[in-house]
Amino acid sequence: MKLNVENVSISVLNTDIIKDISLQVDGKQFVGLIGPNGCGKSTLLKSIYKVIKPQQGKVFLDHTDILKSSPKVVSRHMGVVGQFNELSFDFTVREMVMMGRTPHKKMLETDNERDHEIVEQALEKVHLTGHADRNYVSLSGGEKQRVVLARVLAQQPQFLILDEPTNHLDIKYQLQILNIVRGLGIGILAALHDLELAAEYCDYLYVVKKGQIVVHGKPADILTREMIGEVFDVDCEIYKNPVTGGLGIAYLSTR
Amino acid sequence: MFYILHELMGEEMAQTVKVQTQRMGKRESLIHSKSGFALLIAALIMITLISVGIAVSIGQVRIPLAESYRILLYKLTGFQWGTTPIEAGSFTDIIWQIRFPRVLMAMFIGAGLALCGAVMQAAVQNPLADPYILGISSGASLGATFAILIGFGAIGWLGQTGVAFWAFAGAMGASLLVLTLAGIRGKMTSVKLVLAGMVINALCSAFSNFIIYFANNAEGIKTVTFWTMGSLASSGWNKLPLVGIVVLVAILFFLLQSRVLNTMLLGDEAAVTLGINLSVYRRVYMLLTALVTGVMVASCGMIGFVGLIIPHIVRGLVGSDHRKVMPVSVLFGAIFLIWTDVIARSLISSVELPIGIITAMIGAPMFMYMLVKKGYGFGGN
């Protein structure tokens, strides 16, 4: 599905966090949102998945006006992997993933064969089938993140929002998670902090600083020495990685 | 576990269950398979019914078990079992007028407290929550203290139900205050709710203590103390319908809310992404639990520990999925309070102990056992 964010502004306690941001994500695009800590990436994403209400602007998922639709309607189409995934009560991994079916269920509907199938497939996809009966709180941070991803997969979304999904993960699982979501072939909007990974996985990037979009375009076009210096306050050199052929960034010093 | 099953239902059936559970996967527990869970619920219902029968036969006057069942059966269905006629004798009166309504009351209150505890813990996402967390306990105490030591207890129509009425009013007032306080300036978060509950608790307790300190009324103070420890002694047919209906309606309602309760435990943000707007549900749930708890407190004082501990014991047994937690908690709570009430009225002959003492004395060690033996970590590890 296609996401259209139009002129969104958000202020929290009289401080402007997001100032008039517009962006588009096409049907099968993987779009990255990059920017320094505190630039408003998470806030922008939260307004798209209805946790924060923007003061201005519109958000459309195809023809659905997200800001005016109920969470239930939105959650049938849009999945979210957030940053904070701690629990103070325990569920088994399978129970956690089964909750991804909630948006598709009526109040009294029970889980059927189909739901169980979807859950098992989701677990398989994140390589956690063997952990299905373990308790969620006993898992490592990376495993928890994969359980949450499995829950979102069980939701069968046509659009995905990721808020720094690879935070705290070691490199294997960072790659695994990004590969899984890219393999879904649906529209994705992801806040990422690793610029090299963003360059490799994203089709398009929006760079955010102080609540505004500074520049946007294809990774190879916009990830330049000047942009990174200006937005992230870091001197660097951009080079072509001789092994992968991808874009490499050598960080030199902070300004 | 399987040994007990053999005892209960014979070789063949135990074998099928064993095969079924093995098929279910790694967690080799009966409770986690569908048929095993149905079996557990059936067993708990049976135990509840049997407990009611045994509980009415125990007391100052011992009545043979068969006789008490006979009287109950006769009174409930009009069917006279056996040849000796059932007269309106002393046994019948004791069982039908005194003990049966009291045991039923224990059953409803136990079920209600366990239910409200489980809901409250989910609603504020805090394992330490109990039905009284919204300031209900201290609000009710303040109301009761007021009625007993100063109040309009003796005047007019309030004379009959004075303490109950003021306790209910206090409970409602306190919980509404807490909900308002937590909702001021933006979102009602669980932390704000718990804090607001604490503040109102402190305030109400201060006022209660103020009244108690200046009341020159030893008898009244004793009544207040007794009230805050809870008792089912005054249960009768007149009180039962209100409590029974309120608790049953709440049970029915919350049994249908399991999905929402589950997502509640994930936190507000995750719940919204799963299509459930918690701020609305939380408000409704809290108002309902406050109402139910208020009615219960008004009719039998404060019975601590049940609402806190039963949901935890149940979670240790069946996990956190509310589709299992809710029905099992309700039945477990009912059984637990029926038996603690039996102990409260028969432990020391001719002395009626406040039931709150017994619930804590039994509940706490049970909890300790879980912590030590099962490694249950309140959800956290």
Describe the structure.
The complex is a heterodimer of chains A (255) and B (381). Chain A is an alpha/beta fold and 255 residues long. Chain A has two domains: 3-223, P-loop containing nucleotide triphosphate hydrolases (Rossmann fold, 3-Layer(aba) Sandwich), CATH 3.40.50; 225-255, no CATH class. Chain A is 31% helix and 29% strand. Chain A has nine helices and twelve strands. In chain A, the strands form three sheets. Chain A has a six-stranded mixed sheet, with helices on both faces. A four-stranded antiparallel sheet of chain A has the order 2-1-4-5, with helices on one face. A two-stranded antiparallel sheet of chain A has the order 11-12. Chain A is globular. The termini of chain A are far apart. With 381 residues, chain B is mainly α. Chain B has two domains: 1-25; 98-374, ABC transporter involved in vitamin B12 uptake, BtuC (Orthogonal Bundle), CATH 1.10.3470. Chain B is 74% helix and 0% strand. Chain B has helices spanning 2-24, 34-57, 65-77, 90-123, 136-150, 158-183, 190-214, 218-228, 240-255, 258-265, 268-273, 278-300, 306-318, 322-346, 355-374. Chain A binds chain B through residues 46, 49-51, 70-76, 78-80, 82, 84-85, 87-92, 95, 99-100, 102-103, 105, 107-108, 132-133, 135, 137-138, 155, and chain B through 25-27, 32, 121-122, 125-127, 256, 259, 262-263, 265-270, 272-277, 315, 319-321, 377-381.
